[in-house]
Amino acid sequence: MKEIKILQGKEPQTIEGKSTKGGWHSHDYLHENEKFSTLKSEIVNLSQEAMTHLDIIDEMIPSMTGMWAVVNGPGSSNRLHNHPYNYLSGVFYLQVPPKSGALIFHDPRPQSEILSPPKKLGESIHTSHRVSWNPKPNDLLFFPSWLYHEVEENNSHEERIVISFNIELTRSKKND
Questions:
Q1: Is position 137 within any domain?
Q2: What pLDDT score does 175 carry?
Q3: CATH no. for residue 153?
């Protein structure tokens, strides 16, 4: 977190055109910074485990295409968005005060709510049009890059600090 706060001090303006509403968004290439190399390696290794779990063929190799920090102070949020041109995206939660906003995933089928009957409170994630994730510090979450998501407003009195990232897949070259 110390490195993120130093970076925020050096580049206090948020990057324009991002989903951040009222918060601070770093540049997208933290994965090229030596100070974040251990985290990058760990995320890439864990994304390889995710590929195995998803039954992706062994020749497909994950690589990081972007990594950035987001600092959302009180009243900040992130608008609905996705991460095009990637396979997996994710977020690592560094500081998560209570009431600092859930991550909400949206059903990718835009017409799914048209004929949807009223649902019971606490419905299954399998029939819900939105699924919320209430993070804790040190949570690391992967999700499909095409999945639209947003972050609720930070209603705490402290900052929520995360590092987000994108992963693409490339086919390894086979030795004949």
A1: yes
A2: 57
A3: 2.60.120.620
pLDDT by residue (tens digit) across 96-137? 999 999 999 999 887 887 877 787 777 777 778 889 999 999
pLDDT value at residue 126? 77
Q: Give the residue ranges of the chain where pLDDT is below 70.
A: 174-176
Asked if residue 118 is part of any domain, the answer here is no
CA–CA distance, 157 with 155 (Å, rounded to integer): 7
pLDDT of amino acid 130: 86
| Number of domains making up the chain | 1
User: Can you give the chain as a three-state secondary structure string?
Assistant: CHHHHHHHHHCCCCCCCCCEECCEECCCEHHHCHHHHHHHHHHHHHHHHHHHHCCCCCCEEEEEEEEEEEEECCCCEEEEECCCCCCEEEEEEEECCCCCCCEEEECCCCCCCCCCCCCCCCCCCCCCCEEEECCCCCCEEEEECCCCEEECCCCCCCCEEEEEEEEEEEECCCCC
d(CA 103, CA 120): 21
The per-residue pLDDT for 112 is 80
